[in-house]
Design goal:
The protein is an alpha/beta fold. It has helices at 4-9, 103-106, 114-121, 132-143, 176-187, 205-212, 224-236, 267-271, 291-295, 301-319, 386-392, and strands spanning 11-16, 30-36, 41-45, 56-60, 74-79, 82-89, 92-102, 124-128, 148-152, 192-196, 216-219, 241-246, 252-258, 274-276, 281-283, 338-342, 358-360. It folds into two domains: 9-105, no CATH class; 114-392, NAD(P)-binding Rossmann-like Domain (Rossmann fold, 3-Layer(aba) Sandwich). The protein has an eight-stranded mixed β-sheet with strand order 10-9-8-11-12-13-16-17, with helices on both faces. A seven-stranded mixed β-barrel has the order 1-3-2-4-5-6-7. The structure holds zinc ion.
C-alpha cells in the first residue's frame, strides 16, 4: 500500500457516457487520457481518441494479475466494489480511488431540455471544411452533445491559421481534421468522430454519398464550386445543408440553409441572382471571377464568429425540428432560409444600416430556371460526374452589389 499522504495529492477521474457504459470496463480494456501535473489529476476514459495525442494511461486488470511499474502507465482494478488505480506517477508510487464522472455532469448547465439532449445525441453531422467556420461549428456541436461528427478537410494547420482557427501553435503541421477532432474529444470523448483528411470529392460517388450520409451537412469550404456541389448533392440525397460565408473584412456575412423536400430557394438560386421582393432590387452574383471575390479580405476572428454562431444556431434548429417544444426549432422557417448578418463595423456596408444589423432576408424562389431545384432539375448531372463538375465548372461566385 502507498503512503496515505500521496492519496490526497492526486486525483483520478474516469469519464463515462453513462452508468451503462461501466460494462466497457472489462479486464484488458485500455483507458486513454492524460496526467495533468498542475492539478494532479489523472484523466482516463475508455473511448478511443482521434489521435495519439491521448495515449493509453491505464489498463484494467484482474486484481490477481501482477502489475507493471512503468512510469505513467497505471493499472485499474476493483477492490471491494471500489474502482482503484495503482502505478507510478511522477516517479512516485500511487494508489488512488477512482472518481467516475458521467457525461451528464458536463451538460448539467446546458440550456437544452432532456428531449432536446436525447435528440441531439442521436444525430450525425458531416462538416465539409473545418477551418475557421467549420472548426468552430464542430466544437459548438460538441458542446451541444451531438452524437456523431464527420470532419472533412484536406489541409494542414499553418501559422496564419492561428489567429482564427480552433487550435494553437502546438497544432501547426497537424491535419485540421485532427486539430478539431482533438478539440471535440477534449470536450466530450464519448462523441463518435470520423475524420477525412482529404478532398472527399476525389472519392468514388458511392463513397462521397456514404460520407455525406447524415442528418445535416455543414458546407464550410472556402471553394464556391464545392459549396455549389454540396448544394446539389445534399438536395439530391435529401439531407439538410447549412452554408455560411463572410463578406470582406467580415463586415458582415450570410447564412443559407436548405431543407430538401420543402419549398425554398437553394444556393444555386442565390448565386444565380437574388431578387428582393420588397425593393425589387437585384443582387448580381454573376460578375465575380473567382472564389476570392466571395471570400474577401480576412476579418477579425470575433467578427467571423458572429456569422459562425448564427450558423450554429441554425444547425441546432434544424436538428431539433422534431422536438415540438424546442425554441431553437422555431428559428427554422422554410420561408426565411437566408439570414444577413451585419457585424460591429458593418454600418453602411451592403444592406446593413447600423452595426449588428441582423435580419432574415426574404428570397424569391425556388427559381424556376434553377438547374438544381427549379423546374428543370431533371437535367441534373449524375452524382457520378461530381469530379468533372468540381474541376470543370467555372464557379458562379457571389459578389456584392455596391
Ligand atoms: Zn435552386
Amino acid at each position: 500500500m502507498s503512503h496515505p499522504s500521496l492519496k490526497s495529492h492526486y486525483r483520478c477521474i474516469l469519464y463515462l457516457k453513462d452508468e451503462g457504459e461501466r460494462s466497457l470496463l472489462q479486464p484488458g480494456t485500455r483507458l486513454y487520457g492524460q496526467f495533468v501535473p498542475s492539478t494532479g489529476t489523472v484523466f482516463m476514459t475508455p473511448y478511443p481518441p482521434p489521435s495519439k495525442s491521448f495515449p493509453v494511461v491505464a489498463v484494467i486488470r484482474e486484481p490477481t494479475v501482477r502489475r507493471p511499474r512503468h512510469n505513467g502507465l497505471l493499472t485499474v482494478f476493483t477492490n471491494d466494489q471500489l474502482l482503484m488505480t495503482e502505478g507510478v506517477l511522477n516517479n512516485r508510487q500511487v494508489e488512488l480511488p477512482i472518481e467516475t464522472v458521467y457525461m451528464a455532469a458536463s451538460y448539467a448547465r446546458t440550456p437544452f431540455s432532456s428531449s432536446e439532449m436525447e435528440t441531439l445525441q442521436g444525430k450525425t453531422v458531416t462538416i465539409i471544411g473545418v477551418g475557421t467556420g467549420g472548426g468552430k461549428i464542430a466544437a459548438e456541436l460538441a458542446r451541444a452533445d451531438i452524437g456523431h461528427l464527420k470532419l472533412c478537410d484536406p489541409d494542414r494547420m499553418d501559422f496564419p491559421n492561428i489567429s482564427r482557427h480552433e487550435g494553437d501553435l502546438l497544432d501547426v503541421g497537424k491535419p485540421k481534421t485532427q486539430v478539431v477532432a482533438e478539440r471535440v474529444y477534449r470536450i466530450n470523448p464519448a462523441i463518435r468522430i470520423e475524420t477525412y483528411f482529404e478532398d472527399i470529392f476525389r472519392r468514388p460517388p458511392n463513397e462521397i454519398k456514404e460520407i455525406l450520409n447524415s442528418h445535416l451537412v455543414v458546407a464550410a469550404t472556402d471553394k464556391t464550386a464545392k459549396q455549389l456541389l454540396l448544394n446539389e448533392l445534399t438536395l439530391r440525397l435529401k439531407i439538410p445543408c447549412v452554408f455560411g460565408g463572410c463578406y470582406e473584412e467580415a463586415l458582415g456575412g450570410e447564412v443559407l440553409y436548405t431543407l430538401p423536400g420543402e419549398k425554398m430557394p437553394c444556393l444555386a438560386c442565390l448565386c444565380a441572382g437574388l431578387e428582393q421582393p420588397q425593393r425589387s432590387a437585384k443582387i448580381d452574383y454573376s460578375t465575380a471571377t473567382g472564389p476570392e471575390d466571395y471570400q474577401g479580405e480576412p476579418g477579425l476572428h470575433a467578427a467571423i464568429d458572429f456569422v459562425t454562431c448564427t450558423e450554429v444556431l441554425m444547425c441546432l434548429g434544424i436538428l431539433l425540428r422534431e422536438v415540438p417544444t424546442s425554441k431553437l426549432a422555431k428559428l427554422i422557417d422554410p420561408r426565411f432560409n437566408f439570414i444577413l448578418i451585419g457585424g460591429a463595423l458593418g454600418a453602411g456596408f451592403y444592406r446593413f444600416r447600423k452595426p449588428f444589423d441582423i435580419f432574415f432576408q426574404p428570397l424569391k424562389g425556388p427559381r424556376k430556371n434553377c438547374p438544381v431545384c427549379g423546374d428543370n432539375r431533371g437535367l441534373l448531372r449524375d452524382v457520378s460526374n461530381s469530379q468533372e463538375y468540381v474541376e470543370g465548372q467555372d464557379a458562379h461566385v457571389r459578389t456584392e452589389d455596391k
